[in-house]
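# nightly structure sweep
# worker-07 picked up a monomer target from the shared queue
# config: single-sequence mode, recycle default, output format = structure tokens
# input follows
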Amino acid sequence: MAELIVPRLRARVIGAGLSGLATAWCLIDLGYTVELIDAADRSGGLIETVNTPDGLVERGANAFRWNAVTERWFRTLGIEPAFPQPISRRRYIFRNGRGRQWPLSVRETLALGVQAGTQYLRGTWRARDRETVSAWSDRVLGRAATKWLISPALQGVYGVTSDRLSPRAIRRDGSRRRHGPRFVAPGAGMGEVIASLTRGLRARHATIRLGERLDALDPSIPTVVCTDVSAAASLIGPHAPALGTALRAVESQSMWSATAFFDPAESDIRGFGMLFPRPAGVKALGMLVNTDIFAGRGIRRSETWIYGDDAPCLDTARQWLAADRERVTGRKDNPRRVEISRGSATLPVYGPPVLQVRSMVASAPPWLTVAGNYLGDIGVAGLLAGAEAAATRLAVANASGGARRG
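# output follows
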């Protein structure tokens, strides 16, 4: 007797970055056959690891926040986690010509404590409507803390100064661990996650179509849009006008980086890296010491300098790197290798429009939803959690049987 074949639900994911790959994986777990489409000729989006003779170069994110979501995905993909080395606990902020682990003076620190305590006792420490992070910090912590502590710390994560950020739009993953390591990466670099997801999806019979641009959505196919915010607005707008309008209002900014390998010097700072407040006169937003964060990242000292502007030509990028490093170290060292990773304007500015997008997701028709960093979850660990949520939203909305079977 012939075996009865029960057709599976069909779904489509647009965008094969980390969000799209993880969403496709979750949809398969929920019983869908998945078609994944991306205009690029490779999967992974902004995440890419390049192996050079001097060591690994990360063209995008260099680590995940270590929480229950990340741990579950590493276990699912069979990836062995690499945790930061103990020396990476040291972090610096550049002030008055040198890196400081605490950038405030004694007087500024005492003023911070008094001002923060007063605001807390008055019950006025929470962010107000339409208040920017810098305005909140000036009011609650003081201007010195804003300039030398809060703004550089946030610009190293979000790529913009605190006067362009909304406290309510900055949402961090609440499932992160209270104790133990804060960050984790695959031993072979972030590209290992992309490679494992891509291989696994093909093994699970997902269809992956790269180098194919989709200009319109098919309402007969349950779809998750996982592109950058501009492309998402164009695709979603005709079917969910309110959500499309909210997406178009999200401002994007560029980031690029330069990874350089140097012969180590005794005067080098050792630790996670350094942040550069805007008054410090350094073009870079921050610098990571890759070989101090994770073992095996280079045969020499590896540094990644992160910039928040459009990437200039290669010669100018190298000049910026050389000038910044000389200002910070006081030396003119010649790098053994420099790799420029050109960014693109796909990183959202976490202002009030992000809150609007988050509130409008439910307005999309049942066959359509969205996942991406413009929903308020910053960082790659947040993208994994967002992918799980998007797949669940689509499955629940189509649970009545209205989804097309294939």
